[in-house]
Amino acid sequence: MSFKNLDQLYRSVIMDHYKKPRNKGSLEDGSVTIDLNNPTCGDRIHLTLQVTNGIVENAKFDGEGCSISMASASMMTQAVKGKPVEEALNLSTIFSDMMLGKELDDSIDLGDIESLSGVSKFPARIKCATLAWKAMEKGVENESHS
Fold it and tell me: For the purposes of burial, counting CB atoms within 10 Å of the CB of 85, is it exposed (0-12), middle (13-18) or buried (19 or more)?
């Protein structure tokens, strides 16, 4: 697949998550709620996580922001649902590395999340892409201390 076709595919995936976000809303029985914003561009996220026995059983988000921010939140909630907290945090580290332009191990399958890899070329947009991930990190950290 040519770079141009791959770029177009990635844009399509991002816009799909932006226009039809997965896990949008909030959890009534959410055990962890975190609100974060990116004052640079105005993105904001309200993340609700249900964590039971060290497993992220459910994740929902609400908020406002650019397509990258909201698509990333959609992808993140899909990625961490059903995962042990440790694995969710590991995914966040891998995502952060990808945003910093680091080479990832070819054996790591990030699915739709990989479509955000091009954001690393735009430093001003990295905070947009990482906002939901930072909220998740704070949320599970708060949960482990309660």
Answer: buried
